[in-house]
Design goal:
- Its cofactor is Mg(2+).
- The chain has 414 residues and is α/β, with parallel strands linked by helices.
- The protein folds into two domains: 2-158, Enolase-like, domain 1 (2-Layer Sandwich), CATH 3.30.390; 169-413, Enolase-like C-terminal domain (TIM Barrel, Alpha-Beta Barrel), CATH 3.20.20.
- Helices cover 44% and strands 19% of the residues.
- It contains 14 helices and 15 strands.
- The strands form four sheets. An eight-stranded parallel beta sheet has the order 8-15-14-13-12-11-10-9. The chain has a three-stranded antiparallel beta sheet with strand order 1-4-5.
- Helix 6 (178-187) packs across helix 7 (208-225) and helix 7 packs parallel to helix 9 (249-263).
């Protein structure tokens, strides 16, 4: 099967772009928006609705493989590409990129994905969001051509064993939405609430607000979920633990220890406790914190995110044993082939793999991500798109369930 033509449309992502540098500068919130001027290049407001671009590969038999180009909420910081603007990229996608794709055979994924991921236009590689969506579309087209699921394509080409069960999901909740939290506890995901903190005031003096939040969450889990439900508690701090204690590793470790006590029997996952100005400093700080936690006998999993964007970054963090897990934030890696390889590298080198992404993704990028998860088998995955919880959990669980059942029935009849 070959690609007959390339069609693109601009649409909506599942969330927003938010200027993280502006948040860190202490701007005042006004409901969901903020008073003040943006500080990160590419932003026109501190909070902006974000674009997505659907790339549709029309095959010569009329079938359509498609993927969605989208980036992360906090675009343009910690070494990331700038915010994606949909209409600005259409001429190039439907021109140079389409010219490279039309007439190409789509019987296999890996080689064509690598080619597009490394494609240079006007002296630069394509924006990571474009590489992300283009390679999704290629994977979908290859699956249609071979009449198999995308997970089966990946397992065959990367020589992996498909998971036979759904991958655990870390469900994201808004920080102050008690009703949403109760809904998620009722649905009993493996990990929750993946709540985020971007301001030290949310933590309280010496972290007291944080500890009270964790105690309340643990009690709600017990009250609603029952004694048999023991999810891991996942919190994303965007560096504010380090900010609260002016980078004092011992004090950060002490608060994390108190947090594990507040969580009771529930395991604790701590993402981005510190945020440094360079990758080297980030790795050094995370390693020091892990060492301090081990010495204190504190059992909490540390997740690296910032400064760990590309597949080369992930390899470096794994080689340096910077954390217990790395978040493989899929839009940041560009081609989905890189996300597949990143999970496999982590597993081969003793690093925990959190196959994540962004609330800013779409339904299609999320569905395709589930196939990558089933074929690569990370430790857990992040919920997406959006921060509503219910919708993301539905899309992800159902896509994995459908895929697993199709594969099981096919193997039964073989």
């Amino acid at each position: 099967m070959k690609i007959d033509r390339v069609v693109c449309s601009v649409g909506r992502s599942g969330y927003f772009h938010i200027d993280f540098a502006a948040l860190r500068s202490g701007v005042t919130s006004d409901g969901f928006i903020y008073d003040g001027e943006p500080q990160t290049p590419g932003f026109t407001k501190i909070v902006e609705p974000a674009d997505a671009i659907s790339v549709m590969l029309v095959l010569d038999d009329g079938q359509v493989g498609f993927g969605d180009c989208c980036d992360v909420v906090f675009a343009g910081v910690s070494g990331r590409d700038p915010v994606l603007r949909g209409h600005e990229n259409l001429p190039m996608l439907e021109g140079e990129v389409a010219g490279r794709l039309c007439g190409r055979d789509v019987s296999d994924f890996r080689s064509l994905a690598q080619e597009l991921d490394n494609f240079v236009y006007q002296g630069h590689r394509l924006h990571v969001a474009l590489r992300y969506g283009l390679t999704q579309a290629i994977l979908h087209a290859v699956a249609l051509t071979n009449r198999e699921t995308m997970a089966e394509v990946l397992a065959r080409e990367y020589d992996t064993t498909l998971s036979t069960t759904p991958i655990p999901i870390s469900v994201s909740c808004e920080p102050d939405d008690a009703r949403q939290l109760d809904r998620m506890i009722l649905k009993q995901p493996a990990i929750l609430p993946h709540t985020y903190f971007t301001d030290v005031e949310q933590l309280g003096r010496d972290g007291e607000k944080l500890l009270e939040h964790i105690r309340h969450l643990s009690s709600r889990v017990k009250a609603i979920g029952g004694a048999a439900y023991t999810p891991a508690l996942h919190f994303d701090f965007y560096g504010v633990l380090g900010e609260l204690f002016s980078g004092d590793t011992a004090e950060i470790a002490t608060l994390i220890g108190r947090a594990t006590t507040a969580a009771g029997p529930l395991p604790l996952l701590i993402e981005s406790p510190v945020l440094e100005e360079s990758q080297k400093a980030q790795i050094d700080s995370l390693r020091k914190l892990r060492c301090a936690l081990r010495k204190a006998g504190v059992n909490a999993g540390i997740i690296a995110d910032d400064w760990c964007n590309s597949i080369d970054d992930i390899r470096l963090f794994a080689d340096q044993e910077a954390s217990d897990y790395v978040q493989i934030k899929m839009p940041d890696l560009g081609g989905v082939n890189n996300s597949m390889e990143a999970v496999l590298y982590c597993k081969a080198h003793g690093m925990g793999a959190f196959l994540g992404g962004s609330a800013n993704e779409t339904d299609q990028s999320t569905r395709i991500s589930m196939h990558i998860a089933l074929a690569s088998r990370p430790d857990f995955i992040g919920s997406k798109p959006g921060l509503g919880g219910d919708e993301a959990l539905m899309i992800q669980s159902n896509e994995m369930g459908r895929t697993l059942e199709l594969i099981r029935r096919r193997r039964q009849s073989a």
